[in-house]
């Protein structure tokens, strides 16, 4: 299954209410066939701008990120469900990108610049842009009729 991230902004509320809201969110994910991989609390902080949700204007929110797996068909249902929840101010589901493998190039980076393969490729590209010298077939390396 594809891994997704669910970013939720909850309204600021006491800890017992927040726990029940988090449990309700987790049960919603489980009911749609999802598996929660990680739950991350990013804390309570000011929102960059005022947000109006369910008829109330909010200036602060509790930020949470759920990392989960769920069938792709259930994403729309989850967003609809979270939209109806009065404790959630904002919600957004992102598809998590898989980390790409990068080869270690420390040995190459420690070499002086002219010996690096990437620098040599840049020099070759720059040489292609040089203007060719005009040759008059006179044996001279300059044009004798120029003032």
Automatic annotation (TrEMBL):
Recorded coiled-coil stretches: none
Pfam family, one: Ribosomal_S6
GO CC terms in record: mitochondrial small ribosomal subunit
GO molecular function: small ribosomal subunit rRNA binding; structural constituent of ribosome
InterPro entries, alphabetized: Ribosomal_bS6, Ribosomal_bS6_sf, Transl_elong_EF1B/ribsomal_bS6
Gene3D superfamilies in the record: 3.30.70.60
Any single GO BP term: translation
Assigned protein family: Belongs to the bacterial ribosomal protein bS6 family.
Protein name: Small ribosomal subunit protein bS6m
Native source organism of the sequence: Photinus pyralis
